[in-house]
Amino acid sequence: MTGASQGLGVAIARQLVEEGASVALLARSPEKLAAVAAEMGTTALPLACDVSDPDSVRRAFDRIAECWGHLDLLVNNAGIIGMALLETASDDSIFDQVSTNLVGPMLCSRAAIPLLRAAGGGDVVNISSRSVELARPYLSVYSATKGGLETFSRTLAAELRPDAIRVSAIRVGPVATEPDLQIERSAKAVTEEWVARGGPAPEAPASAESVADAVVFIATTRRGARIPVLHLEPQ
Length: 235
Known about the structure:
Blueprint: H1 7-18, E1 23-27, H2 30-40, E2 44-48, H3 54-68, E3 73-76, H4 91-118, E4 122-129, H5 140-160, E5 165-172, E6 175-176, H6 181-196, E7 206-207, H7 208-220, E8 229-232
Parallel strand pairs: 1-2, 3-4, 4-5, 5-8, 6-7
């Protein structure tokens, strides 16, 4: 599980632990990971990892191999969202989003394949976004990374079919998680400007627990069938 130190990643990891799974928690902050792992007990393995760094990813998955020898499920959840018009987007914002949201799942999936194969098959679940289908200003880079992620999911699924490894994407809009005040302020300012320019008001957020339920549903679906993209919308 990547992006496992806060928000949606914690909710998904918590649900997997409740279902009886042991979970490797990957994120960049060792301090936050330690706190999350302490909550979940001995079933959680905290691993500091930058998913955009190939060597960091290799070290994390080598550790998973040492501890468990196999992997049943990889959830690529780590993501960065940069809200800006493309004209004003910084170099760092563009490269950080692409490297984390798209390159990261590629690196983690590559490292996970031998461990999934060792389990006799398994699942890769990529957390995508409804921005792929809903064109929104201020999200051109983010939306492009998620569109690429879904293309990656489809092609990797075909590549791994002979190994009984399924690849799915969950397409979700805003998710209600523990608030990050800096992100909240940025999102609020962008939303106000967007609506003032005639854009639609943002939709209500889905609960983090509903996304976690979707991950469990995909992973426990009877073998022999695959869910390519699961669209999750608040009711």
